[in-house]
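Record type: ASSEMBLY
Status: queued
Input:
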Amino acid sequence: MKIIEYRKLWFAISAMIIIIGGIILSINGLNFGIDFAGGTIINIDLHQTFEVSEIRDITDTFDERADITYSGDDREQVIIQTQESLSNGQRKEIFSQFQNKYNLTEKDLLSIDQVDPIIGDELKNQVLIAVSIAVIAMLIYITFRFELSFALSAIIALTHDMLIVLAFYTIMRIQVNAPFIAAMLTILGYSINDTIVIFDRIRENRKRFKKNDYKNLVNTSISQSIARSINTSLTTLITITVLYILGVEAIRNFALPLIVGFLSGTYSSIFIASPVWYMLKTRKQGNPRAV
Amino acid sequence: MNLKYIIIFILIIAILALGVFTSFNGLSIGNYDIIPMKEVIKLGLDLRGGVYVVLEAQETEEDPINDEKMSRAIATIRQRVDGLGVAEANVSKQGDNRIRVSIPDIQDQESALELIGKTAQLEFIGPDEEVILTGAQVVDSKAVYQKSEMGVEQPVVTLEFNDEGTKAFADATEKFIKQPIAIVLDGEVISSPNVQNVITNGEAIITGQNSLQEAADLSTLIRAGALPVTLKAVEIRSVGPTLGQDSLSKSLTAALIGILLVFLFMIIYYRLPGFIASIALVFYVLLFFTILVGINTTLTLPGIAGLILSIGLAVDANVIIFERIKEELKLGKTLRTALDSGFSRALTSILDSNITTIIAGAVLFFFGTGPIKGFAVTLMIGIGVSMFTAIIITRYLLRLVIKMNIFSNTKLYGAGGK
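Status: finished
Output:
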């Protein structure tokens, strides 16, 4: 397989997606949901189809900027999202108006989520600290078990995957909430896992190749482990996709970034991590062979 | 054919089938009862329904927060929550100035939230706007039905004052006879009766309650007393029982279908080893839940996601091994040597890749809260169990099958054909 020969192409594809994401990000910013920006979400089962305008009749008196979305299998549930933290009395008032209009019982109030912006800031800090520590810990472990060049390439591939998922979220304007963080952290684990298996092959094959023949070493190692890479991604994608199709809202919010992240993780372990490692090795020798 | 190994193999399958049956349906042998798995697993609020609130004490310059006030606030909230009569409700302190409340199995989320969040400052105010007495002078309060003046049964809240309160109330009712006394809760007038007689027995009632439940909630608030600090709800996560049930059944269905599809894929692609791996995966799921129950973890929605992800990684370990065995077979090795060298070659890569993922999981566990922690727990258990099943169980079963001498065609192991 000519993975190394076409490395500029792979890098260009990834760079394009990340740059587009970056441009849109700098213009629009991320679409933070209530877990980060603060606000209230009320989910009510109306047991009948409805028009957004009917809902607005009720919610406009509380917050005219409220987002109204459909939910549930038959689109008979409504999700009302406000940026303001509503008071207990306001929430009760909203629900009692729904109760009267659609003849509902208390059980039809499916869920309430309300988050203060303080909590969102704390979560952001927590995540940044957790990710930094995780990355350093993994860097140390891989350096210890392999060598620094492998660790650096694996971390570059990992950063690549996170940027791709971030770009996906920015381009698609999907809301970023707490599950997104859990998903990012999972991708972090998965991406490394996927990369390490290929690096393990390179480490093992090193003895059999001439010292400077990195190109063939990497290409051969990838060919040998490609069946595994594809099969593993397939089985993992099967479980996550089923989860996305059948899951409830909270699960879907988690499954979607995972699907994108796993695809990117598989791609990056083959097309990013190994070529980057090749470049690190050849650069060190002062022998950057052009393709 | 080797009968001994065939019997062992069948025995293992039978034990596994019994394990699966037991965890679904439970089992009783003599005096011993094994309860079905789904009844022993502790479910998080997101799966069973319930209310989770984080309250933060609001500090002002005149009113600084201290430990003593926080403890009193927690005691008050606990008493209110107990008034709901829900088992397993939990009130605990988080950091210096926060209180975390979780109440499972709540039918009416808004009322519960209201009950938790109220300051509950009860005051009796005379027509001269002077405070006569406060909730602090109330020793007991009950919700009962009482006949109104028109002879209709109506829910009311009874109050019983302490000595100081009894005296103050007697003086006030004497002073303001035929005038209204307002009963005010958190600045809101809830009833404003005219004083008919001088009340000296230290008892009063609050009328104007819409239902006995509303009266009961109010009396709980009054008994528990006012909060010593103002609390603000900084985070509310409330799931009704319907959505909780829905999430649980949908996630389990998704998990089941996901696993079956993975079995199918493994068997079609890897044939006999794929079949063996599927058996090992059943063992994996059983072991996973046993450990989950054993360490008394609460299963949450992100937890289920972690489980499903770890199933993916469990399959990965098997895939790595089988690909290696295939390669060894292609080199012309015998089944038994191919199996052994395939396993030992796959080992470093399985260990290194999974340990790095466990490192990430451990960091999440120590630095994450709530849902992230729940996810990290199942992910770490999952990876640990998956390494065990792939390296020990799958290997043992494959060796056993080879020793059985029925399936000796290497094509069954994915060799050849290419």
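Annotation: Chain A has two domains: 7-32+118-284, 39-115.
Annotation: Residues 143 and 151 of chain A are 6 Å apart (CA to CA).
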